[in-house]
Amino acid sequence: HFNKYLTRKRRLEIAHTLTLSERQI
Questions:
Q1: In total, how many domains does the chain have?
Q2: Which residue has the higher pLDDT, 15 or 5?
Q3: Rounded distance between C-alpha atoms, residue 25 and residue 18, angstroms
Q4: 1-25: average pLDDT
Q5: Where does the chain cross the membrane (predicted)?
Q6: Cα separation of 11 and 2, whole Å?
Q7: pLDDT in the model for residue 1
Q8: What is the CA angle 11-12-18, rounded to 5?
Q9: 6 pLDDT exceeds 80?
Q10: How far apart are CA 25 and CA 23, in angstroms?
């Protein structure tokens, strides 16, 4: 079970990574 805060931070990191990936492609 993940904490909402941890999930929220990780979600932002994942979103940032996805944005970088889309930019590269």
A1: 1
A2: 15
A3: 11
A4: 82
A5: none
A6: 12
A7: 58
A8: 90
A9: no
A10: 6
**Rounded to an integer, what is the distance from CA 16 to the centroid of its chain?**
5
Domain that holds residue 1: 1-25
Give the sign of the dihedral formed by CA 23, CA 19, CA 22, CA 2. positive
How big is the chain, counted in residues?
A: 25
Distance between CA atoms of residues 17 and 3, nearest Å: 21
| 11-20 burial code (b ≥16 CB/10 A, e <16) | eeeeeeeeee
In angstroms, the Cα distances linking 9 to 1, 14, 15, 17, 24 are 15, 9, 10, 12, 23
Query: Which bin fits 23, alpha (ψ -120 to 50), beta or left (φ > 0)?
Result: alpha
The two tokens of residue 4 are 């909402």
